[in-house]
Amino acid sequence: MDFITTRHPDRDIKQSFPIRSRVRGWFFRVDELPTGYWQVKGRDRFGHTISLVGDSADDVLASAESQAMLQSAEQPY
Asked: What b/e sequence results for 35-63 when a residue is b if at least 16 CB atoms lie within 10 Å of its CB, and e otherwise?
């Protein structure tokens, strides 16, 4: 897996991902899908992304934050 080491400014990320996560450096957005499900997309300052779908916006966001925490712990920097 390749890693992006250049940081993106927070203000640029917040335009597309307006929800600041409890996980440091991650930002999310929540979209309601036409099927009644919710999609959460997240991105960190280094360009890593997460995307999850579920039937509860709060539950999917919590799962995405948990996944972001795990992914951040695995990064070598």
From this structure: eeebbbbbbbbeebebebebeeeeebbee
Structure tokens at 48: 């890593």
| Residue of 47, 53, 15, 50 lying closest to 35 (CA atoms) | 53
C-beta separation of 22 from 32 below 8 A: no
DSSP 22: S
Q: Give SS3 for 32.
A: strand
Which is nearest to 41 in space by CA: 14, 62, 64? 64
Q: What is the C-alpha separation between 62 and 59, in angstroms, rounded?
A: 5
pLDDT one-digit tens code per residue, 10-65 = 566 666 666 666 788 888 989 999 999 999 999 888 888 999 999 999 999 999 99
**pTM confidence score:** 0.72
